[in-house]
Amino acid sequence: MLDDVVATLVCRNVRQYEGGDHLIFIGEIEHYRYSGAEPLVFHAGQYRIAAAHPGLAQ
C-alpha cells in the first residue's frame, strides 16, 4: 500500500473490456481504508480542496 494517501481500495477484478489502446477494469471493492483527511481534487486544470456545499442540509 502507498503511504500518506487519503484512501486505498483493494479490489477484485470482475470484468475487463478493451477500449481502443486501453483495458478498462471493473472491480469489486473487497477492502478499503480512509484516513479521514480532506481529499485533493483535480478539476478544470487546477487542484482544489473538496468542501461541503453550504446549501446542503447535513
UniProtKB/TrEMBL annotation:
Which positions fall inside the Flavin reductase like domain? Answer: 1-49
Superkingdom to which the source organism belongs: Bacteria
InterPro entries listed in its UniProt record: Flavin_Rdtase-like_dom, Split_barrel_FMN-bd
Recall the GO molecular function terms of this protein's record.
FMN binding; oxidoreductase activity, acting on the CH-NH group of donors, NAD or NADP as acceptor
Entries under Gene3D superfamilies matching the protein:
Electron Transport, Fmn-binding Protein, Chain A
Pfam families in UniProt: Flavin_Reduct (PF01613)
By what name is this protein known?
Answer: Electron transfer flavoprotein
